Every structure is written in C-alpha cells, then in structure tokens.
Amino acid sequence: MVMIMKQIQIKISPDGQIQAETIGIKGKKCMKYIPEIERLTNAVVIDSDFTAEYLETEEQVIAEQEIMA
Amino acid sequence: MNQAGKQNSKTNDNLLLWVLTFIPLWNSLVFIVMPKTKRRKFETLGIITFAIQGIMLILILRCYTFSSVLAKLFFVLHISTSDQTGLIALFAEIIIYFMVVITLIVKRKKYKKVIKAQENHKAVNQYIAVASASPKPIINENAAADVIDINSADQEAFASLQGLTIVDAKKAISYRDEHNGFNNIDEFFMCIGAKPHIIVSIKERLYVGDYKALNVVKEANGKRKIDF
Question: Do A47 and B195 lie within an 8 Å CB cutoff?
Fold first, then answer.
C-alpha cells in the first residue's frame, strides 16, 4: 500500500498573492489547517474552495496478523 | 636599434603573446566551470584581467591609436614568413580575447536574472520567517459572541454571520422549512454552499436546536405572502 505524504503547498506570487492547497489530507481534516496557513503567511483568506480530496476518506492501514492454525 | 636588439625584442614579444594567450583561456575555464552563484565574485577580476591584457597587447604592438594598431597588424601579416609563431600567438590571442569578452557580456546578462531570482527567493524566505515567528494568529474574529441555533434563527441572525449574505439566509430558511429543520451543521453549510474559510470562521457560533417553524403570514384570501 502506497502512503501519500500529507502536504500543504503554499505558492507566493511576485505581486504578493498567496495560494495554498492541502495535498494528501482527506475529508474535513483539511479545514483545520486554514488558521495555520493564515498564521504562517500572516494573511487572511479571502476565497477558498473544496478539492476532490474533501469528499474522499483516509485509507486506514490495518496491521495484518497471520493466524496460526 | 641594431639587428640583435630587434631580434631580442621580437622574441620577447612572442613569448609575452603566448603567455597572454593562456590568460583568456584560464578565464574562460573559470567562468564555464564555476557555479553560477560564485561567478559574480570573479567577474570583476575577469574584467580587470582583460583590461590589463588589452593594455599589454597595445604595448606589445607599440601603438597607441586604433588605426595604427590595424596598420601594424596588416604590416605583420605582410611580413609573416619569418615570424610565424609570433603571428599565430597574436591571432589566437585576439580571437580568444574577443570571444571571451562576448561570452562574458552574454553570461553577465543571464547571471543578473539568476541573482534577481535568488534575491526574490531570499526576500520570500525572510518574510515567511518573520510571519512564522509571530505567535499571534491573524484570523477572522466574529464581532458578536452570540451562538445561533440554526433551527430557529431568523434571516437577520443568519445574515449577521460573517461571510453570509441575506440570500444565503433565505436559502437556509427555505431549506429548513422544506425539510423540517437541519439535522446537523454540515447540512446547513451544504445547503448554503458555504466555502471552507467561511465554515471555519462561523462554525463555533452555530448549534443545532429543536426545529420551530416560523409563523407564516397569510393574507385574507388565504394566499401565503411571499417575501423576495
């Protein structure tokens, strides 16, 4: 199973506009990073949108245990 | 000047020309091999070296004006048979000299762009470092601390929420009346199509209470009054 690394991608353009995107963070968890991004960039969010990952669920890795017969 | 003196002078000139030929070659290697970030330091040195080279070239040809330099070159060409090595060194020197000067000019222009990009990158890094050091988060703060029941709030209460308009308020109330209330806050946000940053800023001010249908105003003829 391939684990996708969770990332927050922040792009700052020369005119000062900031674009941020969460990658690999599924479901509602992504929204809790909005205040963190605002704090990190010392900016206020003026627009946002959901990505396809918002509707996805995180894969749960279940440890496999071999049952000895 | 006697014949022996002239021969010595020419030998010395040839030697100097060969030595000078290697200087632009060395400079070229330095600029090609060196990483772009360190080239700047050597640029000034390279320019000074070329300036000295140019002066020494003129002194060797023993002329001080451009037209006399050209005349000397043509004269050397004309009587080249006895002095071929010196001539080869001279031409190699001149060709390499101009090639490296042109390369230097072109590379300097490209290098300026690299330096500018690096300075921008450095400025951005400094900005982020300053922002990260700030402990106080800059987030939207709601004016009123009152909590709103999404199953009983009126239009004004909904519209008072940051980021929500009167249209959103009407949409929410219409949906609530059709479905006999909201089951959870997510349903409320979904019906108004709230954006993520709006959800984060107002979520703490909302709760789900018991649904109470608002009184509907009816006219005398029994028709419902529609408020657009």
Answer: yes
pLDDT tens series, chain A, 69 aa = 455 688 889 998 898 889 999 988 888 888 989 998 888 888 889 999 998 888 887 766 555 555 555
Tell me whether B199 touches chain A (CB under 8 Å): yes
Write the pLDDT tens digit of every residue in B27-82.
666 666 666 666 666 666 666 777 777 776 666 666 545 555 555 555 554 444 44
Q: Which residues pair with B206 in a beta bridge?
A: B148
CA distance B187 to B162: 18
No. of helices (H) and no. of strands (E), chain A? 1, 2
State which amino acid sits at residue B152. S
Question: Residue A16: closest CA among chain B residues belongs to which residue?
Answer: B124
Q: Which of B44-58, B100-114, B127-141, B157-171 has the lowest mean pLDDT?
A: B127-141
Closest CA to B26 of B58, B60, B50: B50
Contact assignment for A40 to B132 by CB distance below 8 Å: yes
pTM, entire model: 0.45
Q: Which residue has the tokens 């946002």?
A: A48
**With contact defined as beta carbons under 8 Å apart, do A8 and A20 qualify?**
yes
- Would the CB atoms of A50 and B200 count as touching at under 8 Å? no
Q: What is the dihedral of CA B105, B106, B107, B110, to 10 degrees?
A: 120
Integer Cα distance of B62 and B46 in angstroms: 24
* Helix B66-78 and helix B36-61, axial crossing angle in degrees, nearest 10: 70
Q: Among B216, B191, B219, which residue's Cα sits nearest to residue B206?
A: B191
